[in-house]
Amino acid sequence: MRPIPQPPRAALGARALAGLGLAVALAGCHGEPPPVAPGEPIAAPAEVALGTMDAECDGLIAAFGLYRQCPNLDDDDRGDIDGWIERARQDFAAGKKANPEPNAQHAIAEACRKAAASVTAANQRCHAGPKPRP
Known about the structure:
Shape: elongated
Number of strands: 0
Structural class: mainly alpha
Mean pLDDT: 85
């Protein structure tokens, strides 16, 4: 039985380089698609008519109260919400005592409005069904 003749190593290297060159050439011919044209600009959200700092922050506490009544919460969740309500009341009392300037009062009212919207969304999710168990 005769051994099968093998091509010289130099010939193998040349074939490998030729194959690599062909692959690069084929990949280069594909090219990238042209960039997508930019869309219309997105308008900034409309300015919301905020109430006073006191009214907006009282609205946050009211939202916590509604969230606390969700039937799908357990006692630990209600205890957490009670803690958040108490902390919010203390923080708002300290804020009133400090008598912040009008721009700061506006910023606080805006933060209370955003937080109340978040708590309202959590309340809606809570009413949709019990939270998943791990």
